[in-house]
Structure formats: C-alpha cells, structure tokens
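Researcher: Batch entry, complex prediction.
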Amino acid sequence: MAGNLIIGGGVYGAAVAFELASRGVNCHLVEAKHIGAGASSGPGRRGVRANGRDPRELPLVRQARTIWSSLHELLGVAPLFERTGHVLLIERERDLLEAEARVKLQDQMGIPSELVKGEGVRDYEPQVSSHVRAAIVCPGDGVADHTATTNAYAAAAAAAGAVVEEAVPVVRLVIKRDRVIAVETDTGSHIQVENNLFILANSAVRGLLTGYADLPVRNMPFQVLLSKPLGNVPVRHLVGHAHRTLALKAEPGERVMISGGRAGRWDEERQVGEVVDQEVAANIADAVKVYPSLQDIEIEIADAGHLEAVSIDNVPIIDRLPGLSNVKIATGWSGHGWAIAPSVAKLLVDWALEGQRPPLLAPFALTRFGR
Ligand SMILES: Cc1cc2nc3c(=O)[nH]c(=O)nc-3n(C[C@H](O)[C@H](O)[C@H](O)COP(=O)(O)OP(=O)(O)OC[C@H]3O[C@@H](n4cnc5c(N)ncnc54)[C@H](O)[C@@H]3O)c2cc1C
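Model: Structure tokens for the complex:
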C-alpha cells in the first residue's frame, strides 16, 4: 500500500518523491529500469535556460533558478549547477525586432537580459563568427549535471523516508469510479494507491494512459554530440541560436557539447535510439558556421538514446487527469523540461497536498487543447 505513488524515476519522479518525503508525507516511487534511465541522464550536462523560453514558462524557470543555486546544499551533495550565463546568437537582421521585444519581456518578468550588437557580442563570445550580428545575454542561466542531480534527488528522497524501487515497470492502472486505486506491475502484482498517483514517466505517460486519454505528444530521441578534447575551447557560455537548431556548451576535459534539438532514430522493438549521420553532420556544420575554429572537431560520443515527449505546442502538459481525481500527470517537456524541474516538482506537490492548482501551472493544463 502506498499513500502516494510515483511512476518514473527521472528527475521529476525523484524530485516529487523528495518534496513529499521531506515534508513528512508517505510516498513510494517505482521505476521501470533504474534511476535516471530516461531523459534525465546521458552525456554532458543540461542547460538551465530562461533565455528564449516560451513566456508561459518564464515564471517557472525564474523560480527554478533560485532553487538551482543552492540545490546541492538541500540534497547534501557537491555543487550541481554552474552559472555560466546564456548567449542566444542572432545572425539574421529579421530576428532583431523579436529579440528587442524578448529582452523587454524577460526583464519585466524578473529575468535580467541584455541585447548586445555588433562587436559587443565578441566581448561575451570572442571566437564567434563575424556572421553573428547580435545576441541576447542572460547572465543568470547556466548548466547542471543532470545525472548527478537525478541520483541526488532520489538518494535524498530515500534518506527522508521515501520508498524508492527500481526494476518495477508499471503496465496498467487499476481504476474504480473516478480514482486509480492500484497499479499493476509486469509481474502481475498490484501496488495499492491510497492518496495521489503521480505519472511522471515522460515518454511512457501517453502509453500508460491508453484508453483514458490521448495526449497530443510524440516521442523524440534528441541528439547530443560530445567532442574529443580540443586544444582551444571556443565556447564560453551556454549558447543557443535564434534560427539554427543548435546549442553549445563547454564541458569538462576541454570538450564541447553540441545539441539543440536534432533527433536520431528510435527502434521501438529494441527500445534504443541511434544517431542519424545526416543529423550529426548538420549539427556540426551549424556549430562550425558560428564558431569557425571548430572546423576540425572530432566527436567522441554521439548519442540519441534518451527519449523525450514533445507536445504539439512545445510546452509541457502538467495537469490533473480529467475523470481521475487522484492522478497528476506531467510530460511533453519538449526538450526543455530539465531547467524547470525543481520548481515544477514543488508546485505539483503543493497542488496534491493543498488541493488547489498553483497559478503558475495553469498555462500547462490540457484544456488548452480544447479538452
Ligand atoms: C538529449 C536531451 C537533451 C536535453 N537538454 C535539455 C536542456 O539542455 N535543458 C532542459 O531544460 N531540458 C533538456 N532536456 C529535457 C530534459 O532532460 C527532460 O525534460 C527531463 O529530464 C524529463 O525528466 P522526466 O523525469 O520527466 O523523464 P525521464 O528522465 O525520461 O524519466 C522517466 C522515467 O520513467 C521511467 N518509466 C517509463 N515507463 C515506466 C513504467 N511503465 N513504469 C515505471 N517507470 C517507467 C523511465 O525508465 C524513466 O527513468 C533534454 C532532453 C534530452 C533527451
């Protein structure tokens, strides 16, 4: 019997378990494989970025950045977050007007940002190509070690009293009237649910809800490239791009990580992802366009083994499941769910314990799709 049951041991499941357990609330987390088996682990680090985000997510990321700076102290581990600042590069004249509006909006929403033009960009990123005509700089952004964070959340949850079980795949929800009363695992055993059920299994949420709801999400195995050590690491900040599918960050060991939203190919039968050569080449070509000194870059790791649910409007779905009064779901992170995890986990637990949807979560309701 679980008072509160959590399905999924990624950052969301682990952080919700930590929030519940550290408030003295009984909870049980079940993970199909091992903690961090999904999108919350893998090569490199994850960006913690407010810059360029959908305006609906800005209040969440603002709150999350405050938590990120001292999260390691809360979880009792070495620092997890590095404040590098984010630089969003602009090459096209036509992107400047939007950039000006965005800087104003981010500033108004408590996320200090600056538009730098011409040679001013080189003060931040000295090796950037002369094609780059401007950049939005957001000094409060940074990067976090996702694998270490997810494991630290799960360990801290267990230390605070949560039951954390690995190798327990949930295959079915057992429903009575308007509540999930138990979940069935792959061995046919049932875990009873007394209070809340949090379905936080990212790419598996849609499948678990088959027959109850059809979420407008699809799964994508996002690609990450990690270079071999470079003599010269040209990237100083967490870097994004206004029109290229490109993100760059400096990684320990004089490496550069190239990502930004290109995807590999997913083998549904074997449940593994592999990179697609053309996508790897295109990601590198974009990186070289903005940092010409990367032209001889050699890739050590090319990974597309981590599935992410992407929603049709590219912002997450965080809601109570209609018709099932004790179920909360969160998925559809669309490639940027990492940064906001500490804040969303807190708010989900506030909602479950206090019964009122926190206003910051209102934009992520299923009703936006007319349901
Ligand atoms: C390559 C890549 C790069 C990214 N870069 C960034 C970035 O720079 N910044 C950013 O903000 N975000 C980024 N993201 C997104 C971010 O990493 C994810 O949104 C976040 O980690 C999702 O966490 P989660 O806990 O919801 O999902 P996951 O980490 O996927 O965890 C879900 C867990 O549920 C388990 N599970 C599945 N089915 C079941 C079942 N039936 N029973 C029990 N357990 C089950 C899985 O095994 C898995 O461990 C990136 C994602 C990827 C893939």
